[in-house]
């Protein structure tokens, strides 16, 4: 991968990291424990608990993606960036555009 593309993907990854930091902060706020002394109805409390569970799952996914992006930013200037770790072929640019943290090509990721 040439230097121009590496720079482009580095900027893309940094932008994604910035966005994820904001999203994670928001999710941490909405996943705080629901105090039992807050006067809301039974149905509303059940709904709030359900929403909290969904947001916790989203938070875990976002934190996992952030970890992968942080690993990708360390490797973006490496000559092996954009090369599948399994088959050694180039990962298509379209895949890297959507998922810059990808370390496998589509075929190897499906196996």
Which key terms come to mind for this protein?
Four Helix Bundle (Hemerythrin (Met), subunit A), single chain, mainly alpha, 111 residues
Structure description:
The protein is an all-alpha fold and 111 residues long. Helix 1 runs antiparallel to helix 2. The longest helix has 34 residues, at 42-75. The chain has a single domain (3-110), classed as DksA, coiled-coil domain (Four Helix Bundle (Hemerythrin (Met), subunit A), Up-down Bundle), CATH 1.20.120. It has helices at residues 3-30, 42-75, 93-98, 106-110. The radius of gyration is 19 Å and the shape is elongated.
Characterize this entry briefly.
By secondary structure, this protein is mainly α.
Distance between the termini: 25 Å
Helical region count? Answer: 4
Q: CATH H-level name... which superfamily?
A: DksA, coiled-coil domain
Number of strands: 0
Order of helices and strands: HHHH
List the helices and strands and how they pair.
Layout: H1 3-30, H2 42-75, H3 93-98, H4 106-110
Helix pairs in contact: 1-2
């Amino acid at each position: 991968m040439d230097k121009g593309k590496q720079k482009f993907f580095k900027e893309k990854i940094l932008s994604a990291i910035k966005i994820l930091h904001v999203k994670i902060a928001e999710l941490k706020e909405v996943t705080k424990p629901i105090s039992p002394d807050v006067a809301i109805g039974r149905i509303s409390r059940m709904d709030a608990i359900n929403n909290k569970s969904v947001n916790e799952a989203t938070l875990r996914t976002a934190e996992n993606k952030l970890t992968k992006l942080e690993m990708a930013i360390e490797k973006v200037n490496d000559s092996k960036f954009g090369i599948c770790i399994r088959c050694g072929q180039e990962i298509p640019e379209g895949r890297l555009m959507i998922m810059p943290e990808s370390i496998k090509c589509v075929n190897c990721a499906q196996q």
